[in-house]
């Protein structure tokens, strides 16, 4: 069983490239400071690494 990671939207994707906006939306983030829980897989970790200026991993 894999763990979960919590991802928080800390920056606005308004003036970012379209690719960055798609990554944020694919993670299910809509509002600033919103936190979502996703499986701790390489795919989701890679998405977070693509836009580190917009997202942050929340530690429990």
In short:
By secondary structure, this protein is α+β, with helices and mostly antiparallel strands.
Overall morphology: globular
Low-pLDDT runs of 5+ residues are none
Please tell me the total number of domains.
1
**CATH homologous superfamily assignment:** Ribosomal protein L30/L7
Please bin the fraction of helical residues.
25-40%
**What CATH first level would be assigned?**
Alpha Beta
The largest sheet is: 3 strands, antiparallel
Could you tell me the CATH topology label.
Ribosomal Protein L30, Chain: A
What is the helix tally? 2
Fold and architecture overview:
The protein is α+β, with helices and mostly antiparallel strands. It is 30% helix and 25% strand. The protein has two helices and three strands; from the N terminus they run βαβαβ. It has a three-stranded antiparallel β-sheet, with helices on one face. The two termini are 18 Å apart. The model has no long low-confidence stretch (mean pLDDT 95).
Q: Layout of helices and strands, plus pairs?
A:
Blueprint: E1 4-9, H1 18-26, E2 35-39, H2 42-50, E3 55-58
Antiparallel strand pairs: 1-2, 1-3
Comma- or semicolon-separated keywords:
60 residues, alpha+beta, Ribosomal Protein L30, Chain: A
């Amino acid at each position: 069983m894999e763990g979960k990671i919590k991802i928080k939207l800390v920056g606005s994707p308004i003036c970012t490239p379209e690719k960055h906006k798609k990554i944020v939306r694919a993670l299910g983030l809509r509002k600033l400071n919103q936190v979502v829980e996703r499986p701790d897989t390489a795919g989701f970790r890679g998405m977070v690494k693509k836009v580190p200026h917009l997202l942050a991993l929340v530690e429990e």
